[in-house]
Amino acid sequence: MTCLPGFLSGGSPCAALRSLFKSSRRRQHHHHQQRRFPSTPNPLPAASAGLPACPSPRRLCADVSSEPPSKAGGGFRPSRVVVVAKTTRYEFEQQRYRFAGLSEEDLKQLLALKGSNYSGLLERHHIHIKNVEHVIDSLRNEKIEVRLVKRKEYNEETVRWADAIIAAGGDGTMLLAASKVLDRLKPVIGVNTDPDRSEGHLCLPVRYTHSFPDALQKLYRGEFRWQWRQRIRLYLEGTGINPVPVDLHEQQLSQEQHSRAHVNGRFQDQRSQISEPHLLPVRALNEVFIGESLSSRASYYEISVDDGAWEKQKSSGLNICTGTGSKAWSFNINKVANQAVEEVLKIAKKYESLSLPLNKELIQKVTNEYNESLLYSPEEPKMFFSIREPISNRVFSSSRQRGFASKVCVRSRCWDACMVVDGGTSFEFNDGAIASILIDTEDALCTVLLQE
Question: Where is this region: Disordered (predicted)?
Answer without folding.
Answer: 23-49
